[in-house]
Structure formats: structure tokens, C-alpha cells
Amino acid sequence: MSVISGKKILLGVTAGIAAYKTAFLVRLFIKAGAQVKVVMTPAAKEFVTPLTLSTLSKNEVISSFTKEEDHSNQWNNHVELGLWADLMLIAPATANTLSKMAKGHSDNFLLATYLSSKCPVYFAPAMDLDMHRHPSTRENFDTLTSFGNIMIPATSGELASGLSGEGRMAEPDDILKFIEDHLAKSLPLRNKKVLITAGPTYEAIDPVRFIGNHSSGKMGFELAAAARALGAEVILISGPTHLQNPNEEIKLIRVQSAVDMFEAATKFFPEVDIAIASAAVSDYRPKLSATQKIKKSAETMMLELVKNPDILANLGETKKHQILVGFALETENEEENAAGKLQRKNLDFIVLNSLNDSGAGFKSETNKIKILFKDGKTKSFQLKSKTEVARDILNEIILLSNE
Ligand code: CTP
User: Fold this and answer.
1) Closest Cα to atom 9, ligand 1: which residue?
2) Contact present, 278 and 297 (Cβ < 8 Å)
3) Among candidate residues 353, 323, 325, 328, the one with its CA nearest the CA of residue 338
4) Which residues is 123 bridged to in the sheet?
5) Active site residues
6) Residue 17's domain spans which residues?
7) Ligand 1 centroid vs 273 CA: distance in angstroms?
8) Both 41 and 107 in a single domain?
């Protein structure tokens, strides 16, 4: 999955012949899973039509401060658009627009949006070779990069003028690759390996029956997806769930019982930097698991149970450099019980979710958590989607790993 998947990209098209290539660029971004909105300078419409770009981006293309078509004088909000974007790309970026960007002009909608944006801005210059090597253009490149903008350098080749030299806009494939590589380098969990346990465990009574619990595995799968999106290499060890692997780059190991999960987790733990135990592991398993289906006979039946290994406590005992995080689902004496587990299992922090909070816990799509740290500090969070909760938990891990 591309690192730009889910990202909101604002593409600014200016008036250069390479503007026709932005149709391919928009398609590549959409195929990689991004959302795309396009703004154009008025003159850029001579080179590629707004209709083409709005059809490909599935969004309205804006090129002026007011809505032109319906003459309603309704204002197009450049500030809102600037804030919407996760990243902005000006491609092609003409010498004229780059000069105006360097000076802070805002005499068209694209420039006003650029000035209002708070996200990283990439620009892909495109111009004739003499314009490209002119000292004022060079100075504008330097000024713009000194502001934190990122230049996607022009390449050499045949130019629209018929001359040959430096000034061709980078090809759409190369622009995509440049942005992907640049984003990947800045991901906070890049070069980190994360182990996550998820879901319930099933403890076999006989070939058709088991002891299990209601865990959906959703929290663990969300954590795995979020960790991968932040650049980590992820190993997800999951008990039986109906969930699909959220990202084929995640190594998903499906297990049945607590003993299976224990074996997989302890095998991978030494090689990871971070481990998060979100699985609802069955504390006990039947002492004997019948090889044939147990037939109904007496009025009562005794099932002898033996204790399962505590996976997280074992990781805590053997932990060296790893950041170790556990979960606690409590119904009473919540903080006291969670703090006890934090200490006993040698964790860096524990995520407490209470069954007393409506919307939190096993089967719901949302969760309300409180984090207890080993130094005694605590942090409470609002009721949020499990996707957002996963981000909150990983943000705390990132803060710890930067300490
Ligand atoms: N855990 C584990 N292996 C087990 C039991 C629990 O890895 N055999 C992990 C869970 O994934 C969770 C944390 O330990 O991160 C706490 O789990 P929980 O079931 O709340 O606590 P227990 O230690 O089982 O204690 P109790 O059931 O008595 O509340």
C-alpha cells in the first residue's frame, strides 16, 4: 500500500505545456488511494481543461476566487482548501508562479491557497532551459526551499521550444515516487518493528467446541494498520476473527489458542522494538481436549481447566530495549487493577478501557481509554473511533521512543 493512501493532495496546476501531464498525475494519485483536489491558474486552463481534471479527481476544479459558472458570486475559500490538504504539489510550476510564490504574491486563487496552506508543499518546475538556469529562477528555487518547500527537480530532455536541456517537468511516475520516498523518510515509526497481539483465543474442549470470548480483534487490527501507516514493519498475531489483513505489508499470523499465541509472540519478541498486547487471551484452557466430539451422557459435567501462560508477563520478564504496552479491560477497581498489571507485567504503559463506559470495549466500533504510565502519570481520552484510539496509543509510543 502506498504511503499516500488516504492522504489529501491539493494539486496546483500552472500554465506550462507540461500541464497536460497532470491528467496522468491525478490518475496515479487516485490509484494510490489518495484524495485529490485541483486548483489552477486561469492561464493553465489553456493547457488542460478543468473538465478533464475534475472528472479524474472526482472533485470540482477551482481557478478563481468566486464561483464562475453560476454567477452567484459565492466565494471559493482558499483558507479552507489550504487547511484541507495533507500536502500540496505545484506541478507544473512555471518560472512566473515560482517567482510570485517566493515573493508572497496572491493575485490568483492558486497563490492565495499556497500562502494559506500549512502542509508540506512540493513544487515541480517546468520551463525552458534558459529560464531554468537564469540566476533569478535559481534564487527563487533557493528561497522557496529555504521556506521549507520541497523541490522535485526538473529533468533534462527535449523542451516545448524545440531546444534540449534542463527544464522538463519530472514525469508523473517519478513525481509520485519522489513524494512517496520523501514521505516514507519522515514517518515516525520508520525502521521500527512492531509486534501486536489481537483478538480472542479459542481453547478447544473437543474438535467442535471451545472456550472463547467476545473480542472482535478490531482494536489490534486498527493498531496494526496505524503502525504500518506510520512506517513500521508490523507482525500481527491474531486469534480467530473475521477481519481481513488491513494491509498486505503486515505480516499476519493467525493462531487459535493462547499456547499458539504465546509461541508466536515469544518467537518474534526479541527482534522487535515495540510490542502491544491487545489480545483477549483466555486465562485457562481445558486440561484435556477430547479428540472426538464429547457425547451427552450424565446430568452434569466437570471440565477441569489449567492456567494458560501469561504472554504479556513473559514478554515483560524478557524485555530488553523494547517498549511494551498492555491493555486492561476492567469492571471494578479499574485504575488500581490496571496499575497492578502495569507493574506485574513490567510495562511502559497500560491502556485501560472500562466496561462501565458505554461505547467502549469488545464489540463496539469506538473506545474510551485512559493510559497509565509506569512513572505514575495518567492521561484520559475522549470516546473515539478505534482508528483514532490506535493513533493516540501510537503517538504515546512515539513520544516514549523519542525520549
Ligand atoms: N495477557 C496476555 N496473556 C494472558 C493474559 C493476558 O498477554 N494469558 C495480556 C492481555 O493481552 C492484556 C493484558 O495482558 O494486554 C491484561 O489482560 P487481562 O485479561 O486484563 O488481565 P489478566 O492478566 O488476565 O488478569 P485478570 O484476568 O485477572 O484481570
Assistant:
1) 312
2) no
3) 328
4) 90, 151
5) 213
6) 8-185
7) 21
8) yes
